[in-house]
Amino acid sequence: MKNFLWLLLLLPICTIAQDSIRVDMSNPHATVYTHLYFLQSDSYEPKKAAKTILGLSEEKAIEKAIKIKQVLDGKGLYVDLDKIPTDANYKDTVGYSSYSKYVLFPERMPQIYVEKIGENWYYSTETITKIEGLYKSVYPWYIQKIQDIIPLSGYKKILNIELWKIIGLLILFIIAYLIFLIVKRIAFFILLKLQQQITKNTNLEVNKVIKKLAHPISLLVALTFIDKAFPSLQFGLTTNTWVFLTLNIAETVFWIYVFLKLVQVIMRIYGEFTERTHGRLDDQLVPILHSFLTGVVLVGGALRLLVLFGVDTTTMIAGATIGGLAFALASQDTVKNLIGTIMIFLDKPFHIDDWIEAGEVVGTVERVGFRSTQVRAADTSIFQIPNSRLSELVINNKGLRLFRRYNTNLGLRYDTPPELIEAFVKGVREIIIAHPETRSDSYNVEFTGFGDSALLVMVNVYFKSLTWGVEQSSKHRLHIAIVKLAKELGVDFAFPSTTVTIENFPEKKGLNPKYDISKERIDTVIATVVSDFNKENPNETVS
Question: Of all residues in the chain, what percent carry a pLDDT higher than 90?
């Protein structure tokens, strides 16, 4: 009898102790565990699960608690209790540090989370407010209507799956396939119109890429439809978890493919734009930008896949940031060169094929890479200049000149008569005006001084072409015309010499040339030389 009395006394205490262990809301882990545990089939006590919801009547709290679990099950969101923190004062330091809060699925279901109210943790007010909308999105109104009209034979099981679910799955795939076909045509039409609107032309290569881009876009729309409609079939948590994991992986892969194709389209359009520009530095930017954007897409896609498999990418990114900082400190030259590359493409101090002078380096720019720039010298050797150093040098860009200036001095003999000096200067001016590759509105031909061995005639001209080879050819034609003019006028070019003058030498003539300064002859010679010069270039227009 005494033992029986002790049993009656201890039984309520044990029951209270058992409830206090199981109904625990002292931390995020305890609250979520309490909610899910008491809604399992073998431990179904919805009243205890409803204690995780604050501020509602028991009946309403039970309804909300059940719907929260049904939404998680319908979306295939498996709650890994081992990852939920047990700290009663836990704070989400990533984005919710203002107060204690824990989000179960930040990426896929951020609306469902628990928060600390007083000394305990409960499902948040936002979760309770939005759960009805979430439930309707997972289980649309027509599902219950369809289930009401399903005959009893529809609930028979084949391979442990109810017949109506198998039929519904087949209908789901058929509708998804029809959506794929329709959206594919619409997407291709819209993308084609956008491309033509942007580029104002039709490019067959771009059209092929757009057609490939429309394919994964239509697949994404079809997968989105399956993602929205599949929970309505109510296959259960385990099946939904694997199905939605597969769908999310497929969607991520397709998104990666879409963005890769989108990068190709953008780069082809940008490539067409750069072809219409004068400089080739933009052309060099196309492959660099293409590689960079491709890398960004692949890295972003890889991080998304890791999230789907439960990897905490925030920790990875933080670790990568610290590791990247250490790596940057260990490879400062590489980072400096990368920054130099960015500055070169932003400032554009030169273009591909420009002739530049940068410090001791003189040559033609051939390629601008991530780390260095290649400059080909006149002897065809290659200078590899780090971009960090090149961005700090004073660059004399000969390729940006409007014209190529050519300045030289012609030396005439000291015994040349003034009349022939004037005639020679006038003839050179006429040749420059007639030359198709020189500016006729900006030149100088003047008798500028007395040299040690010659009378100096300055010739200052500007060639129109910026190409080095064309400049040399233009100089050649100018020089030949000047030599012909001097020959026809009887003007000699001077060279360093010593002249001995003998005033009286019987029966001997002096060695000095006899000059013909007849005005009629001079005008005829100049007209003839200029006319012959023009005849040598019959297809070129005179400036």
Answer: 9
User: What torsion do the CA atoms of 160, 166, 168, 173 make, to the nearest 10 degrees?
Assistant: 130
Q: Please tell me the number of Cα atoms within 13 Å of 163 on its side-chain side.
A: 8
* Structural contact between residues 65 and 49, judged by C-beta atoms closer than 8 angstroms: yes
Residue 112: count of CB within 10 angstroms of its CB: 22
User: How sure is the predictor about 104, in pLDDT bands with cuts at 50, 70 and 90?
Assistant: confident
Are 190 and 228 contacting, i.e. CB atoms less than 8 angstroms apart?
no
Edge-to-edge strand order for the sheet containing 395-397? Answer: 382-386, 372-376, 361-368, 355-358, 395-397
- Measure the CA–CA gap between 473 and 321, rounded to whole angstroms: 58
Using DSSP's 3-state secondary structure scheme, residue 507 falls into coil
- Token pair of 64 as six digits: 């909300």
Q: Supply 419's token pair.
A: 């009349």
Does the pTM surpass 0.85? The reply is: no
- Is the pLDDT at 445 greater than 80? The verdict is yes
Amino acid at the residue 348: K
Tokens describing residue 169: 């799955």
How far apart (Å, rounded) are the C-alpha atoms in residues 136 and 60?
17
Sign of the CA dihedral with 348 first, then 354, 355, and 361 last: positive
The string over 332-346, giving b where at least 16 C-beta atoms fall within 10 Å of a residue's C-beta and e elsewhere, is eeeebbbebbebbbe
Q: Find the range with the poorest average confidence among 30-34, 79-83, 202-206, 354-358.
A: 202-206
Query: Which DSSP symbol is given to 357?
Result: E
Instruction: Give the tokens for residue 531.
Output: 């006319």
Determine if residue 353 is left, alpha or beta; phi over 0 gives left, psi from -120 to 50 gives alpha, anything else beta. Answer: left
Rounded CA gap, 2 and 128, in Å? 50
Distances (CA, A) of 14 to 5, 17, 24, 43: 15, 5, 16, 18
Report the distance separating Cα 245 and Cα 14, nearest Å: 43
Of 432, 429, 367, 361, the C-alpha closest to 398 is 361
Going through 50-149 in order, the beta strands assigned E by DSSP cover 101-105, 109-117, 120-123
Residue type, 441: D
The C-alpha angle with vertex 116 and arms to 114 and 120, in degrees rounded to 5, equals 105
Nearest partner of 303 among 294, 316, 287, judged by Cα: 316
- Distance, in Å, from the CA atom of 186 to the CA atom of 180, rounded to the nearest integer, reads 10
User: What would the two tokens of residue 381 be?
Assistant: 């050797």
Q: Please provide the size of the chain in residues.
A: 543
Neighbouring-strand partners of residue 121: 116
pLDDT at 190 over 50: yes
Q: Which CA distances in Å does 384 have to 285, 351, 362?
A: 18, 16, 12
Task: Check residue 151 and report its DSSP letter.
Answer: -
Burial class (CB in 10 A: 0-12, 13-18, 19+), 55: exposed
